[in-house]
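Q: Hi! First time doing this. I have a protein sequence and I read that you can turn it into a structure. Is that right? Here it is:
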Amino acid sequence: MNTMLIGVAGGTGSGKTTLTRHLKEHFGDAVTVIGHDSYYKRQEGRTFEERSRVNYDHPDAFDTDLLIRHLKELKAGRPIQCPVYSYADHNRTDRTVEILPSRVIVVEGILIFQDAALRDMFDIKIFVETDADERILRRCLRDVEERGRTLQSVAEQYLATVKPMHEMYVEPTRKYADIVVLGGGRNLVALDMIMQRIQGHIDRA
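A: Yes, that's right. Below is the predicted 3D structure, encoded as structure tokens:
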């Protein structure tokens, strides 16, 4: 199978998930979405309080080597067992989800362009860019409503790690992008262009 790998990076709350959801809804089973967050390292032997203080916006928080191995397996036409991460517990669970090879694999995450080995695997690199004020508001709403966090804990985490790590590691990877999408999933012009490129690959496969 001739698999196309697409990377969708950008800061927290930038609209990466919205963009990838549009692609999945449009192409169905032809597109598989994998989140870098699923590959957070397991926090062995740490209490909940200790796990909650880990810097999850630093490259060292991710088992990127495992993600790379899994993408190679998928490109070779073999299924993988993708880890399942619990945001509520701040830890990787014992469960996995089987992911089958597909024509197009979209990998989403804030730091997927930071690692050169992973970055070089992508056929198309997309960076989603959104105003910082809008991003933090989206993150607050998401973490409170979907992940059971308090507004205070979200604000503290943003100031302590999210913002400085974005400036240090995420924003500098913008230069590697083939496409910079302003405004996230609401940018219909960019979305249409990406869909045409994917459709062309599917038609040739």
